[in-house]
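Quick question, first post here. What does this chain look like in 3D?
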Amino acid sequence: MFRPDTAILPLRILTVSVVLLLLLLSALSLSLSLSLPLSVSLSLFSLTVCLMDVLFRRGVFVAVRLAVSSSVCRPAPCAALLGARRTKKTWPVSFSQEELKKRLTPMQYQVTQERGTESAFTGEFTHHKDEGSYTCVVCGAVLFSSNTKFDSGSGWPSFYDLVKEESVSLTDDFSYGMHRVETTCSQCGAHLGHLFDDGPKPTGKRYCINSASLGFQAKDAASTSTSASTSSSGAEGGAASSSVSDGKTEL
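> Answer (accepted):
Ran it through. Tokens below.
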């Protein structure tokens, strides 16, 4: 998930260089037709060449830097090769827009429902290091584990694997004139982020996710909840056994 305007910057610079070249040719033609002094023609020529040289060097430099920079996200293979595509009509869980607008913050709604993107390094979970599970903020489905979270330097929470392969759906995203693989919650269709193939081993994947799309369940809280549930079940089972035992005694 990277800023599209930086990706097309070299193209813009090179385009300006071409325009300046055309202006140079026009200026030379004009000077010849008007019979301007040779010094004036040479001055115009030198000035235009210098501008072209500066812009061309800048364009090449930016292009090379973006090509080798680790912050530039390389799109993963086509989603059709990575998993089945699903339409919004097939989401198992659905919520009304009115309910979501009341329950979610404006940023959460924009990201999950309108496929927005939060600014880099501003998300709640970008540098979050607590142990636990990351869930879908819309429906609560468990998506990622803190064990697979890593610092990608991209400015967004990054994970190299899923809790379950079927917990996230993949679709091709051709917005901003580029190909990326969009990730959405398989239960409710909430937009999460994008998948790239520049992650660490063993998967080589990087799930670049918006913090606004995520909730968090701490490991201790989950353990406490599980223990309480187990204790409750044990108590009920004990009571039932006692009742049965008493019944047998009475018989």
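The longest strand covers residues 168-173.
Residues 219-250 form the longest helix (32 residues).
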